[in-house]
Amino acid sequence: MPEPSLKIENARYVLTLDRERRIIRDGSILVESGRINRVGRAAELAGVRADRVIDARRMLASPGFFNGHMHISYAHAVRGIFPDEMASPLLHVFNLQTAMTEEEEYHTSLLGIVELVKSGTVCFVDPGSTKFPDACLQAYQGSGVRVILGECVSDQPAPFTLPRYPAAEGVARTSSFLAKWHGRLGGRVRAWAMPFSAETCSAELLRGCKRAADEHGTGFTLHHGSGPQARQESTARHGAGPTQYLESLGVLGPNVLLAHALGIDDAEIECIARTSTAVVMCPVTAAKSGRGVPANGRMPELLARGVRVALGSDSPNNSNHLDLVRAMNMAAIQYKDARQDTRQIPAEAALEMATIAGAQALGVGDELGSIEPGKKADLVLFDTERPEWQALFNPVNNLVYSADGRSVHTVVIDGRVVVDAYRQSFVDESRLFARVQEIGEQLQSRTGISFPRSRWPVIS
Ligand SMILES: [Zn+2]
């Protein structure tokens, strides 16, 4: 059944993110059959009717957000258990993830999706965390969110428990995952090849996964990092730096998304740019885990070279939140501080990474990422009738520096209203929250992975 038509009327501002980056004051948007049919000044659309009309006089309309690296699955059940001083919880992370049952993963994923959509995210990349996509399909279907999924594969020893198969089997599993999942739910589910990282995968596995992605006309993502030590090790092993090594294997290219990409040098940036590879950076994770953005963050140089850069939140045990507005804020402020230069990452650049550039990095920029006629109708209405939005003169500045995802009032995905006046209707939140809390208790006692709940005495 086609979605009923929808008119967003008299929006205080519409941030179109179209080619001219037009901002329409007192604007209206008409959505028909899941697509944006018209966008313009309210007066121009005054006589236009629709099945549903949303009075947006106190709203700011923005394209929906793209989260390019977001480990859904285990983490919502055990959010915040790792103490700050634990430098790398990865060993525990993968043990917890391995212990998840199908029912547990369904509920924790559903909670992740609730958090994502209620803060304005319309599409996310889960880099291979989901073990039971068949069970989670219900969550994708009910919520209406867009998801990019894949099966995590590796074939080399790792210091943590990754799914490991002989290279040929890893490639075969990837191919059949792509064949089974790509394009499901009217295109809202996309499937990509997701080898974990170059350190945990052989050349044969990486090449095979890239070939599978190319054959299916889809994407490829992996965890990627560099830095002086990594460059030294990679040169000793492969005769090339970490990024040049991927290029030598033929696994860089327009359908490849490198995650994190901290520590890359000028030659690696050049390599990423000349192969038209995309990058997703997780600014909050980088800052929270003390990754040294002043030395290792090269977002301004990537953008200057025209590289498509998306923002990601990593998991709720890395950044610890999934709010892309806060990620935009971090991206915009951390480089100003790191470089002691307020010209770095303007608010507009941060918003682009979360919307149109993010969509382009994920290979869906032709269909999504801006409010323009012909594009799929994915958009967010922010409620500006809140203290943090006052006074309102420069809407992009207020969005990136003053607001956060809690002022998301309405979210539309594929023309369907999935968050309506702050509420979603696909799941009973209090039951879900209680179940996820229970799952967290059970998971910790089953795996023996738990930590003091507080540095301060907890009285009960
Ligand atoms: Zn990751």
Q: Major beta sheet, specifics? A: 8 strands, mixed
**Shape summary:** globular
Name the poorly predicted regions: none
Mean pLDDT, rounded to whole units?
Answer: 96
Q: What is the number of E strands?
A: 18
Fraction in helix: 25-40%
Bound molecules: zinc ion
Radius of gyration: 22 Å
Strand content is 15-25%
What is the CA-CA span between the terminal residues? 53 Å
Tally the helices. 16
Backbone structural class: alpha/beta
Write up this protein.
With 460 residues, this protein is α/β, with parallel strands linked by helices. The chain is 36% helix and 20% strand. The chain contains 16 helices and 18 strands. It has helices spanning 90-99, 102-118, 133-143, 167-181, 203-215, 228-238, 242-249, 266-274, 283-288, 293-296, 299-304, 324-339, 347-354, 356-361, 395-402, 429-447, and strands at 6-15, 23-32, 35-41, 52-55, 59-63, 65-67, 121-125, 146-149, 152-153, 189-191, 194-195, 220-225, 256-262, 278-281, 309-311, 379-383, 408-413, 416-419. The strands form four sheets. Strands 1, 2, 3, 4, 5, 16, 17 and 18 form an eight-stranded mixed beta sheet that branches. A four-stranded parallel beta sheet has the order 6-7-8-10. Helix 2 runs parallel beside helix 3 (133-143). It is globular. The structure holds zinc ion. Residues 69, 71, 127, 223, 259, 314 line the site of zinc ion.
Features:
globular; eight-stranded mixed beta sheet; binds zinc ion; four-stranded parallel beta sheet; 16 helices; 460 residues
